[in-house]
Amino acid sequence: xxxxxxxxxxxxxxxxxxxxxxxxxxxxxxxxxxxxxxxxxxxxxxxxxxxxxxxxxxxxxxxxxxxxxxxxxxxxxxxxxxxxxxxxxxxxxxxxxxxxxxxxxxxxxxxxxxxxxxxxxxxxxxxxxxxxxxxxxxxxxxxxxxxxxxxxxxxxxxxxxxxxxxxxxxxxxxxxxxxxxxxxxxxxxxxxxxxxxxxxxxxxxxxxxxxxxxxxxxxxxxxxxxxxxxxxxxxxxxxxxxxxxxxxxxxxxxxxxxxxxxxxxxxxxxxxxxxxxxxxxxxxxxxxxxxxxxxxxx
Length: 298
Known about the structure:
The chain has helices at residues 34-40, 76-83, 116-126, 131-144, 160-173, 190-205, 217-223, 241-252, 258-267, and strands at 13-27, 47-61, 65-70, 91-96, 100-103, 178-182, 209-213, 226-231, 234-239, 284-285. With 298 residues, it is α/β, with parallel strands linked by helices.
């Protein structure tokens, strides 16, 4: 993978995000008791505007794996939901030039009254698989999740880990051209995570484009061709994965893991190369509002 500088995708853009902004209106007063709710009916609601994204732009190119990092609450998951069409942007837009498979909220859409096999048919069909494809994949999905013994058990009796493994197994089987992932490999034991990583590598080898959000510097360094750092609703850094993960730890005020720090030291650009262009893969700190990009309608 390109975390080690091996792969240089150069295809056309499969996802184009241009000047996307998003905010939410939230209550500024918390009411927890019956008394507060009753007296609150006599007062107009007090609301405040929470700006989550303040004009972000990026492209995901064919065959590329792009990682997005940032502190909790910086807007990473909101951005992926906008890309997936779950939230509309307040400003700017997203252009999808290829079909995508988002893995964002594990277990959304499951019916706890149905067994695993029926839920596989339900979710896989929603993800775009045909009935013949689902029939041919059921055994493989159950084996990947190690749930063959529990295939006829209702999901309401599954543990959260079992349900998450089933969700990942279905999603990995239903992958279209672009895979969008929020906190990849965050569930399961070491064996299941290893199978997920192998499946992930296989998708990359076959030319799928991958957009992922994670706090795990190891994942970004190992699998991504390029990375972006989101903070304050804007991208503040982009470039090679090891340098962006280093900037992420700097932002947190935490020391980078020894392996990542060594990789950063060995790959750090010399002062004479500090002016390399974005196309060459050099990292850079981005000023507020940075980013060109034509306007794309929502």
